[in-house]
Amino acid sequence: MKITRDLYLSAGRNIVREHHGLWFFGLQRLTGFLLAVYLILHILINSSALFGSAETYDWITSLVQGPGFQYLEILVVLGVFFHLFNGLRIIIADFFALTRRQGTLLALVSVFTAIMFAYTVWVYLPKLTGMH
To answer: What is the pLDDT of residue 57?
Structure first.
């Protein structure tokens, strides 16, 4: 029993350390789920203009235009870009037989996501600081 447990624990440590693709797999699923939740909330908020009164819509939009939600918008954009670039990585790896180049593709996903996140922060910075 101890041998199986030790093999399981050592295999688990090696998987986490050596297979970075598992982290990207988990993040792909997480961002997909969170983007689906965001989309549902976005549709519900915007549909309040159709099915509710104008005052209700104004009240809801005043809530989601607060400073806390502006930071959440940046996180949504980060999730979108990561999900986009990682999805493209999966497509490229599968269709062009580049599974042996996963390390390079993972690095490219990270770099492109970081570049787009930096650009997003740069665009949002005046809005966040109140200098727009």
So the answer is: 84
